[in-house]
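# step 3/5: fold
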Amino acid sequence: MHMTVLFASPRAAHSNTRALLVPFLETWRAAGHTAEVFSLFDLHIEPCRACRGCQMDWEHPACVLADDMPAVFDAALCSDILLLAAPIHSWFCPAPMKAALDRFVYAMNKYYGSRGRGQSLLSGKSLAILTTCGYRPEKGADLFMIDAGKLELTGTLHDPRNLLARAGVTGETALTMVNGNVVFRDGVLTGVDEYALAQEGEAVCTRVLREPCEAFWNLC
C-alpha cells in the first residue's frame, strides 16, 4: 500500500509529531509499504478562495491557484491512504494543514459547482490522523476511528469540528482510545460487562417507577 503523509509542525525536526511519525513510518516501510511525506510548512500553500473554479472539471483537482498544492493533490490521488500528521494548536490543526484541507474539500469533491453534484476524487481511500498536543498525557488528545463513508450526516464529511462533536452519535465508531487505553472497539465497550450494566439499569428504573406507584396505592 502507498500512503501520502501531510506533515504540519512548525517545529519540524524537533517536534513531538515528528518523534511519533518517524518510528511509525519505519514500521510502515518495514512491512513492505511505501510513503511520501510533504512538510507543509516548507511549501507554498495559498488559502482556498471559494471561487469554485475547480468545480468545472470533475475528473481532476483543477485548482486555479498557482502554488505547491498540485503535487500534493497528485500524490493523494495515487495513494491508498492519506495520513494527516500535525499537532493541535488553538483547538485545531496549524494553519498550513487547515489551508491544505480547505483546498482538498473543494478540489477533490465535486459537490459545489453550478453543474450539480459530481464525484469525490478521494472515494475509496482511507484517512488516518497522527496528532499531538502540549498537555500532559492525561489531558492529551484521545483517539477514535470512524469510517467517514458510513456517516449519516454529509455535513460531517466536510466539517471536521462537526465530526468531532458527533463522533459515535450518528456514525459508526470503530475504535476509541482514552489516555492510551482502548475503551471501545468494534461496537463493544472494553472492560465493561454491558449486559450486566443494562440489567442493573433496568432494575433501577423498575424500582424508581414502582415506588411511586406503591406509594399511590397505599394512599388509596
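# step 4/5: annotate
Residues 151-158, 160-170 have pLDDT under 50 and may be disordered.
# step 5/5: archive (pending)
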